[in-house]
Design brief:
6 helices; DUF218; transmembrane; two-stranded antiparallel sheet; five-stranded parallel beta sheet; alpha/beta; Rossmann fold; single chain; about 190 residues; 7 strands; about 50% helix
Length: about 190
């Protein structure tokens, strides 16, 4: 019985250590903040509400993108995201409209509107990049950027980041779920 208790305690300690290590990894990636040196920024898609209204997570990403693109007027944007079963428009089209409405020139925006996952966002966005592109900037919510940079690296792209705040109402749930997704990205690559 003592062996079972010891084994369970050992497993619990390992899980707690992994939990905190992943939290550290999610926060450490934020230090690699973008400085406008990459020609392209990839803005990762998120939920769109009926009527083509960005969810709060997506709106935060887009607001960060507008600020960044205004600060660096030569940077081009790729907006990503297909149309989910409960969405009446593609995420990419809603994102492009939002950027244009907020002063980003339409000729600076490319749409990747087929993806359904973060991996596909980056994979399909890479096809829109010039062949010699080795580095991009990724814009997403803060909790999401570690996994996005792992996936970009697996696709042969270096990435710096622009972090959008995560809405408080989903922050805890998102950070817990993202830990599992990071483990999957490390082990399976998607």
């Amino acid at each position: 019985m003592k062996r079972i208790i010891f084994a369970l305690l050992f497993i619990l300690i390992i899980l707690v250590l992994i939990f905190y290590w992943l939290d550290h990894e999610m926060n450490a990636v934020l230090k690699n903040e973008a400085d406008g040196s990459n020609e392209y920024v990839v803005i990762l898609g998120a939920k769109v509400k009926p009527g083509g209204i960005p969810s709060q997570s997506l709106k935060n990403r887009l607001d960060a993108a507008v600020d960044y693109l205004k600060r660096y007027p030569t940077v081009k944007a790729i907006v990503t995201g297909g149309q989910g079963a409960d969405e009446d428009r593609t995420e990419a089209s809603v994102m492009a409209d939002y950027l244009i409405k907020h002063g980003v020139a339409e000729n600076r925006i490319s749409l990747e509107d087929q993806s359904t996952t973060t991996y596909e966002n980056l994979l399909f966005a890479k096809k829109l990049l010039p062949d010699n592109t080795a580095s991009i900037t990724i814009i997403s919510n803060d909790f999401h950027l570690k996994r996005a940079t792992i996936l970009a690296r697996k696709l042969g792209l270096k990435a710096d980041v622009v972090a959008a705040p995560t809405p408080k109402v989903i922050n805890t749930k998102s950070r817990i779920r993202e830990r599992l997704a990071i483990i999957k990205a490390y082990t399976r690559g998607q």
